């Protein structure tokens, strides 16, 4: 990174961070490990192994961890009070400059840890070289990732909750909007649009909860584990954990630096969230077709065709659906990376951040886009209601009618099936098109009131069990979803 002073900028890497084919220069920007080597790495090797383009987003987290580490070193008598004051002031100035945009990235730094330490040493001198006492980049990156995730995951949860609230508010407007429910993509039973929107929202509540569960499992500080075996210095790991807001410390130093379960677990959470978004988007795509015509997406969230002037395409829903493969790929990448690694740290693990961050960025973007798209859509309630006509979606209600009259359900199921068969044989599209005499011929238990029990509205309202499509039940769901989103 480089510091900008007014109109001119002096690059922090200007002192020749790496020599392409010769010895590394003895300056603050040399690789942290260069001391053992007589020759510096090849320029292509440097480019191949650096990670700062990926891990730069953790700069503030790295600084927060470094500040806590320095304070602990001072408390333990490893740093002097004066040195700690210098380090704290230097780290604070770096963080401030990063946030103000007066410090920009010099990508010749090997990683974000190297950048922070080199910049600190540039600013405060020899005291900066003491910051790394008692720690390794192995435990440092494990800490940085946890600190970053503690910041980032609540932002994703906030976005998911906003989508849940939007779906609940839409549902509130459509508790009376009838809609065919499907199984196997065939007409099944009448429901309401409100119940369907609530179903989407409930799946998202599980995503929020899963993320909270995973956050709980990273609530342990790995700092002080060193490269793998801890430190001979009198470090106080618990003090660092407390100052950074962790509940405790990791229990085993080998496990601390080799664990990437949390990367895999969060990305698994992202994959499940993305799967829910993809299924929802698939229904939006189906419902926006001429054949369904249930939803009309805003022109702001649709695109046209370069050859067919009439087209209005649900591209954003399709892109959300399509990007599911990226998130799944990120998860498989992490699982594959870790599957054969011996304890403890291996450089393969540098590759954990790109899929983790990619999956996070993808799902956060998709949640926000889906909310904007669905919030601005309009619904063809008449066409939805007409979808309940025909297709025998009320056949189960015919059976339930007979059950209430004392007939065993299995027998009633067969009677209802005979009614459907009669309709098919006589080319009638709905059971209600039969006459009462035709129905009595199948079962004498049928009375004139059967037709009042098998209208789409009666079918939906009759299902008044918890979670069902009856208005009273959906209103309970909406209230619960809003309460969940607001907590």
Could you list some keywords that capture this structure?
disordered N terminus; 57% helix; elongated; two-stranded antiparallel ribbon; 487 residues
Name the structural class. mainly alpha
Q: How confident is the prediction overall: mean pLDDT?
A: 92
> How many distinct beta strands?
9
Report the uncertain regions: 1-28
Task: Please report the number of helical segments.
Answer: 20
Spatial order of the strands in the main sheet? 2-1-3
Compute the separation of the termini in Å. 40 Å
Instruction: Give the percentage of residues in beta strands.
Output: 5-15%
Shape summary: elongated
Order of helices and strands: EEHHHHEHHEEHEHEHHEHHHEHHHHHHH
Report the biggest beta sheet as strand number plus sense, adding barrel if it closes.
Answer: 3 strands, antiparallel
Helical content, roughly?
55-70%
CA radius of gyration is 31 Å
